[in-house]
UniProtKB/TrEMBL annotation:
GO terms, molecular function: oxidoreductase activity
Signal peptide coordinates: none
Pfam family, one: Nitroreductase
Name this protein carries in UniProt: Nitroreductase domain-containing protein
Organism, as annotated: Polymorphospora rubra
Domain called Nitroreductase: residue spans: 155-238
């Protein structure tokens, strides 16, 4: 990856360093200096808007829970196939992108979706290009998460198999994180896909993930303009040819016209013109611990804001959740262990827990590296995804970020299935090569904190009935 152009340049210019606050742009004309982060006056809407009058399918609000343990799904155990009808499609969409919680402050509602999103910015949209789904006409539909409904925005595509298309809206996350929001779109696509795939797997729908696809075709299919909205990934139900060939124009909908030129360039640098193979299905694990159903675990999941550093997690929880989260994943991972029974504190290169790269208490160092966020010190263990930049091209960079998000999402589900808590975590890029003993070529992707929760979040609500929650503020060192 060339650090002077495309995704490499974006990575370099959006890297956090200790001597510059995270919300201060780097001194380079290629990033925007004219935007005020978190400005209430420019806050983007949480959802895309479409004109009235488009055909709408209201999805059933009773979700057909197949009752499969979350741990069985994460372990890759195959579930009996259920028909893909409106209710099942709605369940899959809801367990990834549905509105499960909300806060209300100053008369303004903020929605929280089923899958986590860095800074709760939720910059993604999901479209379903349907084929033969009982109760849903063949066509291209936008998932209206607030209404739990499908809005038809385009005619039926060519191709045989119903396919979900994930897109990202840079401004929705860039409003707070500026150009670094490019990374966030892919992280969040990963967490969302971890839940969409798990929901589909638990209904035996054989989801197939593709991260290589013809970008222009997908933009045309869903009406994304390639500046304010970008296609990120495809998830197809079954082995058929994905239904992604546009047969007519899509209604484009409305998004605020704010562009980050560096993001547009990074995205374009990785464009492809042909459809790639789906990710291979990884082998199932030989065993899995008992747990509640996936649907229950997804609704219970939230990002744990406070972890109890005086309590530890069992070694089996670390080993099983890492093994399950990394099924089929080749990106290197490290684990900083703070409080795990029978694993001495220190830094480990997964899967080797026998020989620490560094032994000792790393809580203070992790807290500093995670911008003084105490979750990184209070967690029982912190998982670090990173890969050599020189092994990536512009497309590979996108896929690496998405993969790290997918692992974060699976770690999250595993934690909540096993009674632990988790949170995604950002970091000072410049500090990680020294932490893990690698060269400066290492591109750090994402951190995940897993630990003992200090409180239990209220379970999320059902479609159309998000539960109202109070925001809990995480601890910041020295604050
Ligand atoms: C990729 C990713 C990165 C995150 N980074 C941080 C972080 O640096 N600090 C933090 O406190 N929470 C972090 N979070 C947690 C989000 O703030 C949280 O997911 C969001 O507020 C939505 O809340 P929920 O997960 O409880 O639904 C991150 C989440 C994700 C998915």
């Amino acid at each position: 990856m060339d650090l002077d152009s495309g995704a490499g340049l974006l990575h370099r210019l959006t890297s956090y360093v200790p001597d510059r606050e995270w919300d201060v742009p780097v001194d380079d004309p290629r990033v925007r200096h004219d935007l005020v982060p978190n400005d209430p006056g420019t806050r983007p809407p949480q959802l895309k808007a479409y004109p009235d009058g488009l055909p709408v399918v209201t999805l059933p609000r009773d979700l057909p829970d197949p009752g499969v343990p979350a741990t069985a799904v994460l372990a890759g155990v195959e579930s009996p196939a259920r028909p893909l009808d409106a209710a099942q499609l709605g369940r899959v969409l809801f367990l990834g992108a549905g509105v499960v919680r909300m806060t209300e402050r100053d008369g303004r509602r903020h929605f929280y979706r089923a899958a986590g999103s860095a800074g709760a910015r939720f910059p993604l949209e999901v479209y379903a290009s349907t084929r033969g789904v009982a109760g849903v006409p063949d066509g291209v539909h936008w998932y209206d998460a607030a209404a739990h409904a499908l809005v038809q925005i385009g005619p039926a595509a060519t191709g045989a198999a119903t396919t979900l298309v994930l897109t990202g809206v840079p401004w929705r996350t860039g409003w707070r994180y500026a150009e670094r929001g490019f990374r966030h779109m892919y992280w969040d696509a990963g967490t969302l896909l971890s839940q969409l795939s798990a929901a589909a797997d638990s209904a035996g729908l054989a989801p197939r993930l593709r991260t290589d696809f013809p970008d222009a075709t997908l933009r045309d299919l869903v009406g994304a303009d390639g500046v304010h909205e970008h296609p990120l990934a495809l998830l197809t139900f079954g082995a058929g040819e994905p239904a992604i060939g546009p047969t007519g124009p899509a209604t484009t909908g409305t998004l605020p016209p704010v562009e980050f030129p560096l993001v547009t360039t990074a995205q374009r640098a990785g464009e492809r013109t042909v459809l790639g193979e789906p990710w291979p299905r990884a082998a199932a694990l030989p065993d899995h611990p008992p747990s509640d159903s996936l649907d229950e675990v997804v609704l219970r999941r939230g990002s744990q804001r406070l972890m109890d550093r005086s309590r530890t997690l069992p070694r089996a929880a670390l080993e099983w959740s890492m093994t399950a989260a990394l099924r089929g994943v080749e990106i290197p991972h490290w684990v900083a262990v703070h409080g795990v029974d029978d694993v001495p504190p220190g830094l480990y290169r997964w899967p080797d827990l026998a020989t620490p790269l560094r032994a000792g208490n790393l809580r203070a160092e992790l807290e500093r590296i995670c911008l003084d966020q105490s979750l990184a010190a209070d967690a029982a263990f912190v998982v670090i995804a990173a890969t050599p930049a020189s092994t990536l091209d512009d497309r590979g960079y996108r896929t690496a970020q998405l993969t790290a998000g997918l692992v974060e999402g699976r770690l999250h589900l595993a934690a909540y299935a096993l009674g632990a808590g988790a949170s995604g975590m950002t970091f000072l890029d410049s500090e990680i090569p020294a932490l893990v003993g690698e060269s400066d070529d290492l591109a750090t992707l994402l951190f995940t904190c897993v630990g003992v929760p200090e409180y239990a979040s209220r379970a999320g609500g059902r479609p159309g009935a998000p539960v109202e929650v109070r925001q809990i503020t995480p601890r910041i060192a020295g604050a």
